[in-house]
Design brief:
The chain is of the alpha/beta class. A seven-stranded mixed sheet has the order 8-7-16-17-18-15-19, with helices on both faces. Strands 10-2-1-14-20 form a five-stranded parallel sheet, covered by helices on one side. The protein folds into three domains: 209 residues, 3-Layer(bba) Sandwich (FAD/NAD(P)-binding domain); 120 residues, no CATH class; 160 residues, no CATH class. The chain starts with a strand and ends with a helix. It is built from 17 helices and 20 strands. The longest helix is centred in the first third of the chain and has 18 residues.
């Protein structure tokens, strides 16, 4: 019997995981991606000896029994070398010089939060209990949300008596829990939760589903944890690609999927364009696994998208984008004993994002990201996507693809970019831009503001800064193909979390959705779990 043909659209971690597992199980797998390198938002680029993680900078699920440990064991490949992040994050609230350290050791973290947020321990104990029940439930591989009898049976089999203890909280948000413990007026606690949850759920405490928050806020403690990969985040995708090719799977980069085809509600194939040659063809498929946003999936289906599905996507609240600045610096720019991950809020009255808050990742000596005596700093902030698309870029718009960021561009091409270190040497610390292009002006303003904010903690000046690049939603749209450059999924609100979210099984037979639009959400661990679910569903077919 001929092997079933699976086309995977997108070589992010979710697509690579699904493709590698399916190839290992004997399927004929072709993965297609329009970018230059695999990994999506967890990929890497290099400049002048520095290695920068594009988006994701830490990974969960490497511990024994964790999702990546399970997947790599099944593929019979070694996990990449990594060290636990401890603290997982050091959070600085406005006008405070002492951080809130999210320690990996549960007892140390308990002492820290009791000191930082007196009277809040009953709330944290509720989260710990919900996490324990939910984590055990999730480890039994439920399918959420279920879309047929097989899915429902997987869900029912995962339920235990302690799972039922989570049911009263199914329709609660973190804000509801804070009110239940009379903590809603604790400004520092509420702000800390807003900052942390925005990273994981895309929304603040008032909107985040409580059951999701219990996991997001607890997974950084032992025996779980967040990990810093040796080398770069690219090592994760590199090992998945090696497993895929070992098992006769195929990966084609710089190949764009332009259309998904169906017939009578069943998948038939995709239209592919080779970016180098411009040639197009129809690639037939028995299954298509789409490692894309749900918005992109509707676009790829075009008029074949089921109306109800399309309408649901159109009604989703606006998703966030990200502004990211990448700095290569002298090691002297980094304070002594600097944690690898930090989070700053600069003004209580400002938004979480738009450079008023920054999530910062710092390389460690010998971790493969910077030459000896040097370091990398990556700082990201949520931003309103529409602000980067609402104005036309004027006469320079046709050149945007080459000028915007540097991913996939050679160092000599960067020399001609508006945004390079030579440009910034004459603008730090008081930039007076002469750029007329509206998009470029906005990008430079964000860059200048981010550097000014970061300079409050790091020793940044024109002697210590060796390289600067920045990325906007337009950058992420160009490089990852994600609709309008949105990041992090669709937000873990009650209406889109778990049983109420978008299923891996779409309304079109044998068309599957993986990635951060589906349960359990964003992050390399989350998208890998969604891929594992789809592999199980395809096998059951």
């Amino acid at each position: 019997m001929a092997r079933k043909r699976v086309v995977v659209v997108g070589a992010g971690i979710g697509g690579l995981t699904a493709g590698a597992l399916l190839a290992h199980k004997g399927y004929s797998v072709l993965i297609l991606d329009q970018a230059l390198v695999p990994g999506g938002c967890a990929s890497t680029f290099r400049r002048q000896g520095f290695t920068f993680d594009v988006g994701a900078t830490q990974v969960a699920g490497l511990e024994p029994g964790g999702i990546h440990h399970r997947i790599f064991s099944e593929l019979a490949i070694d996990l990449p070398a990594a060290t636990p992040c401890d603290p997982a994050c050091a959070v600085y609230l406005p006008d405070e010089t002492e951080p809130i350290n999210v320690w990996r050791d549960p007892e140390r973290w308990q002492a820290e939060r009791q000191r930082q947020f007196p009277g809040s321990e009953p709330f944290w104990q509720l989260l710990a209990d919900l996490f324990r029940y939910s984590w055990a439930f999730q480890s039994r591989n439920p399918v959420l949300p279920p879309r047929n009898l097989w899915d429902l049976w997987q869900l029912v089999q995962a339920v235990r008596p302690d799972t039922l203890l989570t049911l009263p909280h199914t329709f609660s948000t973190v804000g509801d829990a804070l009110r239940g413990y009379r903590l809603e007026h604790d400004k520092r606690l509420k702000t800390f939760l807003d900052l942390q949850l925005k990273l994981y759920s895309q929304v603040d405490a008032e909107e985040t589903a409580l059951l999701y928050a219990a996991t997001a806020l607890s997974v950084s403690q032992s025996p779980q944890g967040l990990f810093h990969l040796q080398g770069s985040m690219q090592t994760l995708s590199d090992r998945l690609v090696a497993a895929l090719e070992r098992d006769s799977g195929k990966l084609l980069m710089r190949h764009t999927v332009e259309q998904i085809y169906t017939d009578a509600g069943r998948i038939t194939g995709v239209r592919v364009r080779n970016q180098k040659t411009g040639a197009t063809w129809i690639e037939p498929a028995d299954h298509v696994v789409a490692n894309v946003t749900v918005q992109n999936l509707v676009q790829l289906l075009g008029d074949q998208a089921p109306k109800g599905y399309q309408q649901r996507v159109e009604k989703l609240p606006p998703a966030s984008g990200a502004f990211v600045i990448y700095l290569g610096v002298e090691a002297s720019a980094i304070p002594e004993n600097c944690p690898p991950h930090l989070q700053f809020l600069y003004d209580y009255d400002g938004p979480i994002g738009e450079n008023n808050s920054l999530f910062v990742s710092v390389s460690k000596p010998g971790d493969g990201r910077a030459p000896a005596g040097k370091a990398t700093i990556i700082a990201s902030s949520f931003t309103n996507v529409e602000a980067w698309w609402k104005e036309e870029a004027g006469s320079g718009e046709q050149e945007l693809g080459m000028r915007d960021w540097g991913l996939g561009m050679r160092d000599e091409e960067i020399q001609h970019s508006t945004f390079n270190i030579q440009h910034y040497a004459q603008h730090i610390p008081n930039p007076k831009s002469k750029i007329q292009n509206p998009y470029d002006r906005l990008k430079q303003a964000y860059t200048d503001t981010a550097i000014a904010r970061l300079s409050q903690f790091f020793n940044l000046n024109d002697q210590t800064i060796l390289h600067i690049e920045s990325a906007t939603p337009r950058t992420f749209a160009r490089f990852t193909g994600r609709d309008r450059g949105i990041v992090g999924g669709i937000g873990q609100r009650l209406s889109t979390f778990g049983p109420f979210g978008f299923a891996n099984r779409t309304p079109i037979q044998h068309l599957w959705l993986v990635g951060d639009s589906t349960h359990p959400g964003e992050g390399t661990a989350g998208v890998s779990y969604s891929a594992l679910t789809v592999v199980r569903q395809i096998e059951a077919e």
